[in-house]
Specification:
Blueprint (H helix, E strand, L loop, with lengths): L3 E5 L3 H13 L3 E5 L2 H10 L4 E5 L7 H11 L4 E5 L4 H10 L3 E4 L4 H18 L3 E4 L2 E4 L4 E4 L2 E3 L3 H12 L5 E2 H9 L8 H15 L5 E6 L3 E6 L3
Parallel strand pairs: 1-2, 1-3, 3-4, 4-5
Antiparallel strand pairs: 6-7, 7-8, 8-9, 10-12, 11-12
Helix pairs in contact: 6-7, 6-8
């Protein structure tokens, strides 16, 4: 089955450029010039990844990204002519997985698409492997080398969420909603406390991964190169 990629941009030249490179790589593309067209395609087709421009007529890319995050579990790459930190923050707050500033090299976008598709394939696995560290969703057990580690449930769920999407930045609010639910009454300090505990638990057990604070955004898990 081919991988379906949705391109959402009001610039026909972007569509033509991306279509050429993506088809050459064996992907199937769907084109939308605005968020409304994108929503129709998302409802009717099985889309595996979306490339979304920020500045579009009507609903902008940030709003579309939030909609995708609410109803679909697919990676999103945002394209924008704006490279300021504030604009990137808005993109990550909306739930984007990656961010590329125009003008860009098509080859770089291809690298990012392939990397994101690989990461999302991990989500469906019951066992996540981070070098020598293994996270088993069936048994709720983490193995670091020869050591078996039993984590409290919320710590396990938080680690699994981060490990399922290496290098993706999650805001504290996103993690609160995904792990504790929309009705949770606590605040973002809950995330900070649990991240601190996870770091302490694994500090002297493995260097397979690190949970990084992304200042102004939130947290991400990085897998270290052996």
């Amino acid at each position: 089955m081919k991988t379906n990629i949705l391109i959402v941009d009001d610039d026909p030249h972007i569509h033509e450029l991306l279509r050429f490179f993506l088809l050459k790589e064996g992907y199937r593309t769907f084109d939308a010039s605005d968020a409304g067209e994108a929503s129709v395609i998302l409802e009717s087709e099985q889309i595996h990844l979306a490339v979304v421009d920020v500045m579009m007529p009507g609903k902008n890319g940030w709003e579309l990204c939030r909609e995708v995050r609410e109803y679909y579990d697919i990676p999103v790459i945002m394209l924008t002519a704006k490279g300021e930190v504030r604009d990137k923050e808005k993109g990550f707050m909306a739930g984007t997985d990656d961010y590329l500033t125009k003008p860009f090299e098509p080859a770089e976008l291809l690298f990012r698409i392939k990397a994101l598709l690989r990461r999302y394939q991990m989500v469906s696995r019951q066992v996540i492997t981070l070098n020598g560290t293994v996270i088993d969703r069936n048994s709720y057990v983490v193995k670091a080398g020869d050591e078996t580690i039993h984590l409290p449930l919320k710590e396990f769920e938080l680690l699994t969420q981060l490990a399922s999407f290496p290098d993706r930045i999650f805001t504290r609010d996103q993690l609160l909603e995904q792990i504790w639910g929309k009705d949770f009454d606590g605040d973002s300090r809950t995330i900070d406390v649990h991240i601190k505990r996870l770091r302490e638990r694994f500090a002297n057990r493995t260097d397979d991964f690190v949970i990084t604070t992304v200042r102004g955004f939130g947290y991400k898990l990085e897998v270290r190169v052996p």
